[in-house]
């Protein structure tokens, strides 16, 4: 197999860091697209990645990042500028005669989505499709890393979020998304043009999630539904209307509808995704 230089955006994030590490272990070179040099990017450099300092909203930066690269992972945060970044990334990929992109999207994507964030992910998928560059879209459910944002409350015995107690989803660790991304970028054959929904292994209510935290941490953790504003305040996004509008619409967008659970991660990577209890065990120090 001919090894590639692979471009990774969102390289310092919860899926980016392990994607970089896994691609390097597979023998590829990695160009890690980061906004600045800091402690997080220094760790990527220490792993052996090439750092590319740039702005995903600067066309010349994005063109330069694609130079000599044929495959890439596109990961962008929950932000209203997603479409601008997608258009520039797709255009630069087309100009570079790119062969393959893995795009991280959202589980509930649909052309009728009410959430401003989710409809942008739908349009982002369409932009990559229109570009003509072969793309695989990964529609991931809520990351298990979401619980980091409410860890201060968990330390005090409460899991506080804005969703109904009986709302169910299958929390998915960033590491398992990264393993999927790295496998696809390493072996894209038969995956181009496909859409995969990605789930953790357990479909859980928030009450059950609180019980799992209780057992894993050996302390009582009670799930408490709070308002969207309180949840946003806890996370530090109390003044960000885009985030609050997204959360307000996830119910109508069927985020918590019983998913068509699948074995996509196992089928693609050969490994089962980790359970929530395992995720808590690995990150225990964050929650105690």
Please outline the helices and strands.
Blueprint: E1 5-8, H1 16-25, E2 29-34, H2 39-47, E3 50-53, H3 59-66, E4 71-74, H4 82-95, E5 100-106, H5 116-131, E6 135-140, H6 146-149, H7 151-155, E7 158-161, E8 168-169, H8 174-186, E9 195-198, E10 204-205, H9 206-217, E11 222-225, H10 228-235, H11 241-249, H12 264-269, H13 276-282, H14 284-287
Parallel strand pairs: 1-2, 1-4, 2-3, 4-5, 5-6, 6-9, 7-11
Antiparallel strand pairs: 8-10
Helix pairs in contact: 1-8, 3-4, 4-5, 9-13
Structural write-up:
The protein has 288 residues and is of the alpha/beta class. The protein contains 14 helices and eleven strands.
Per CATH, what is the topology of the domain at 5-141 and 173-199 and 259-273? Rossmann fold
Label the CATH architecture of the domain at 5-141 and 173-199 and 259-273: 3-Layer(aba) Sandwich
Strand content: 15-25%
Q: SSE order, as H and E?
A: EHEHEHEHEHEHHEEHEEHEHHHHH
What is the radius of gyration?
19 Å
Helix/strand-derived category reads: alpha/beta
Shape: globular
How far is it from the N-terminal to the C-terminal residue, by CA?
A: 45 Å
Q: Describe the strand arrangement of the main beta sheet, using strand numbers.
A: 3-2-1-4-5-6-9
Outline the low-pLDDT stretches. Answer: none
CATH superfamily of the domain at 5-141 and 173-199 and 259-273: NAD(P)-binding Rossmann-like Domain
- Under CATH at level 1, the class of the domain at 5-141 and 173-199 and 259-273 stands as Alpha Beta
Structure summary, number of beta strands:
11
Number of helices: 14
Largest sheet: 7 strands, parallel
């Amino acid at each position: 197999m001919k090894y590639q230089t692979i471009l990774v955006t969102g390289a310092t994030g919860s899926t980016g860091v392990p994607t970089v590490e896994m691609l390097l272990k597979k023998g590829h070179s990695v160009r890690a697209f980061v906004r600045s040099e800091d402690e997080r990017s220094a760790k990527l450099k220490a792993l052996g990645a090439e750092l590319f300092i740039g702005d995903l909203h600067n066309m010349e930066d994005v063109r330069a990042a694609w130079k000599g690269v044929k495959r890439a992972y596109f990961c962008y945060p929950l932000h209203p500028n997603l479409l601008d970044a997608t258009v520039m990334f797709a255009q630069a990929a087309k100009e570079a005669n790119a062969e393959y992109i893995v795009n991280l999207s959202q589980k509930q994507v649909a052309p009728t989505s009410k959430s401003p964030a989710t409809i942008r992910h739908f349009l982002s998928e369409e932009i990559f499709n229109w570009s003509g560059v072969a793309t695989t879209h990964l529609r991931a459910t809520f990351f298990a890393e979401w619980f980091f944002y409410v860890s201060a409350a968990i330390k005090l015995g409460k899991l506080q979020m804005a969703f109904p107690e009986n709302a169910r989803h299958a929390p998915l660790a960033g590491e398992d998304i990264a393993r999927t991304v790295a496998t696809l970028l390493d072996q894209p054959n038969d995956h181009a043009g496909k859409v995969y929904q990605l789930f953790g292994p357990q479909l859980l209510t928030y009450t059950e999630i609180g019980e799992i935290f209780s057992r894993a941490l050996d302390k009582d953790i009670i799930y408490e539904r709070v308002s969207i504003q309180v949840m946003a305040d806890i996370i530090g996004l109390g003044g960000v209307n885009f985030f609050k509008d997204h959360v307000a619409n996830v119910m109508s967008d069927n985020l918590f509808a019983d998913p068509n659970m699948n074995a996509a991660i196992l089928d693609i990577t050969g490994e089962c995704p980790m359970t929530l209890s395992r995720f808590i065990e690995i990150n225990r120090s964050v929650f105690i």
